[in-house]
Design goal:
By secondary structure, the chain is mainly α. 47% of the residues lie in helices and 4% in strands.
Amino acid sequence: MAGAILRDLLAERARDGSSRFVVDTAGTRAEPDQPAHEDAVAVMQEQGLDLSGHRTQPLTQDMVAQADLILTMTKAHKEQVLRMHPRAAEKTFTLKEFAHDDREGDIEDPVGRGRDVYRRTAQELRRALAAVVDKLHSDPFPG
């Protein structure tokens, strides 16, 4: 859901409908080539976004090395990324940390908790990712 929402927000911001940013998603423990959860597909469809073709992929060391910015849903995910590639610390943040300077907040995992939890998570993602888009367009890589 985060990738679909971020792509949507970036496209809305881009004047010509394209974006200079490339968004890729991967999971720290994802099984390869699995479809998005049916509740995620349904909730994204309610927002006009299509996740029906989404397939999961596990995060690799090469992906971490090539990324300019890595946003994770939780502190535990961030720690897994940094164990995989310790030098990625300068470009790896939890979503809430990058968006709102919230070093303690995690994005709730809605899996198996019903469509209403997916909706709440999607709203939380949209708020945080809107702040990310603002930062990327003002100063993508401060510091």
